Amino acid sequence: MSDQKSGFKDPFKPYKNRYKSYERLPEKGRDREDIFRELSAMAEEEDAKWKNGMVSGTFYHAGDDHRAFLNKIFSLYSHVNVLQVDLCPSMSKFESEIVSMTARMLNGDAVRDRNPDDEVCGSVTFGGSESIMMAMKVYRDMARAEKNITKPEIILPVTAHPAFHKAGEYFGIKIVLAPVNETDFLVRPDKVKKLINKRTVALVGSAGNYPYGLIDPMDELSDIALARGIGFHVDGCLGGFILPWIEKLGYDVPVFDFRLPGLTSISADTHKFGFGLKGNSVVLYRNLKLRRYQFYQMAHWPGGIYASPSMTGSRSGGLTASTWAAMVYLGEEGYLRSAAAIMKIAERIKRGAGEIPELEVIGNPTFLISLRSKQVDIYHVNDYMISKGWRFNGLQNPPAIHFCVTMPQTMVPDIAEQLLHDLRAGVAYAQSAAGTKPRSSALYGLSGSIEGRAQLVQVLYGTFEHLLRV
Question: I need a labelling partner for 414 at 20 to 30 A (CA). Which of 25, 93, 110, 450 fits?
Answer without folding.
Answer: 450
